[in-house]
Design a protein that fits this description.
This protein is an alpha+beta fold. The chain contains ten helices and four strands; from the N terminus they run ααβααβααβαβααα. A four-stranded antiparallel sheet has the order 1-2-4-3, sandwiched between helices. This is Nitroreductase family protein.
Amino acid sequence: MNEAIEVMNNHRTYRDFDENYQLSDEELQQILTASRQAPTWMNGQMYSIIVIKDQDIRKKFVEMNPGNPHMLKSSVFILFAADLKRTQKVAEHYQVDYPIAEGLDPLITAVTDTALAMENAVIATEALGLGSVVVGSIRKDIKEISEILNLPDYVLPIAGLSIGKPTVEMRTKPRLPEKTVIHYDGYQDYDYQEIEEYDKTMEIFAEARETKLWSKKFADYFSNKPNAAVDAFVKEQKFLKD
């Protein structure tokens, strides 16, 4: 099997890291370079990558989000943010309008660019024999984190990435049945039994941190109203109009 494909197929999320292991500057630079080489719409590169080494900042993050102590205990924590500030500067330079708040497409574009850059960082991390965990829950405290990092308008935190040397071996997690995810020449519906079969697969997999069926976990999650703090912050950062 191609080495790159093997790395991707063996992806695992790690949450326990050796606190004494220090990522070398060379390793960090390799990860950041790979991240910046990710696909991007029109070569717009509409993201910013904030490397957070400062222990005091990381402690504040964990205080806000105690369920993710790895943000402090990993070798490094990196924040990935959708960034339309750069193109706003370009608009000012050319003295043209910048009506990005009038529709969702610019925001979707920037978030997509950001996610692609982060995925490249994950793959590069694993290629180096290290581990990582994506932290989407930073959006729970999106305003506070943005203030700590002095993020300007038109910049939106999307997710963080803890990187380090794993201390606990993890298994490769089963994914949904292919027919529920892969479609050819159009969307094909599938029987709910496929989801029930996946529930059984995940029960057998028996990851300790999972206390509910996969389907019940997301039924419960999406039965709650979305995080209103994100909506308010998106508008405050001038991505969308009120």
